[in-house]
Task: structure prediction
Amino acid sequence: MAKNKQASSAKFYLLTLGCPKNQVDSEGITEMLYQSDYQSVGDPNQAEILIVNTCGFLQAAKDESIAALNELAQSKRKNQLLIAAGCMAQRFGNDITRQVKGLDGLIGTRAWADIVPFIQKLRANKRPEPLYHLPETGDVVLETIALDRQLVERGRASAYLKISDGCSAPCAFCTIPSFKGLNRSRPQEHLITEAKQLAETGVHEVIIIAQDTTAYGRDWGEMDGLPTLLEQLVQAAPEIKWWRLMYAYPGHVSPRLIEVMAAHPQIIPYIDLPLQHGDPATLKRMHRPHNVDKLVRWIESYRQAMPGAVIRTTFIVGYPGETEAEFDGLLDFMETVQFDRVGAFTFSPEPGTPAFDLPDQIAPEIQQERWERLMAFQQPISLARNQLCVGQQLDVIVDGIGDGVSVARSYRDAPEIDGYVVIEQELPIGQMLSVQVTGAMEYDLLAKPNDNMILDHRIGDLRF
Result:
């Protein structure tokens, strides 16, 4: 895309906090600035514009964002601009400016496409008060902007593809709809264009994300649109070796999703299915799908259709009213399903959510004790699932090297949240290779390279 020749060639520093969905928004911000001839730098001292793409999902994330803004504000020079962007800016607004002195502007998660004119407005602002651009309504910018992913993805082995924004699920503990809005799916033609661009950059793995990937198309009346989109993406970009599915809402997964995943080897047999709990009574208070038996049947069908299939989930412990019996019900559910990957969090009461002032709040020390019990309960399950891989061949992407070993990921491992495959040799970063698994730990695998290491386009044939 052509750059705006009238724009400044100022340098910007962009810090991204929070989830991969924020990372995609930051890539959009970066592209907008690139197109206007701004230059990215990794050192805030070299930048005229400082941007923090904040996270405001939980109190801990808000605290991290405030700390990052204050650190930049304290060292900010007179001619530098400091901007709070993203979720926390959208959600808290004035509250941020009271906690961060020296903030010049706030631009919300629904407005990042306006980053260039917003910076120009900040530069022309003669008043000491910060400027706000926090629209409460309107289309999510990703609906109307087709990103040129070649500008920001070149040289990466893995990349995220955000298929929608916002969320229409009624979860009682979640703040996302209040600042992200309801689910809005991106046009298929934009996603296909981006997929082709990613393939041209040499990306091996595309990770499909959204607040709820299985809600794709529901805002225009297509109630099971994700499987169709997956088929179109695989057809449009056959060079992509792995398509990984994250953030699948349990109430929207379908038999057709299983059929499409099983029919296309490039769609790896991995799904992230954040369940939040396993006891029906707790799930009902959470306003989550609570037909646990139906979910177990879907999981059984998923695993039967794809040998070696992996399921990752996330649980909340200490939700208001969670009895010891309900917590035991969660552990029983974990024993029944035998999840490959489990993450867990203690409940965080967020203002503005129905769960914030529910009765029977659980004491923090009980929450922490239950979290520790859950993680300890999952460890032998994870170890047993990993031990099934020993002796098998796996294809991996090398993420890092050092001290004579390589750290890689198989199709069983999403970036930054799952385990690793530790290989007894330093190998090229970003390369996709074939290895043989020699050992297993609770979270990670040990492996050695195969004689013929270079991957020719396949997934390891695991038989669990």
Notes: Residues 1-7, 138-144, 456-464 have pLDDT under 50 and may be disordered.
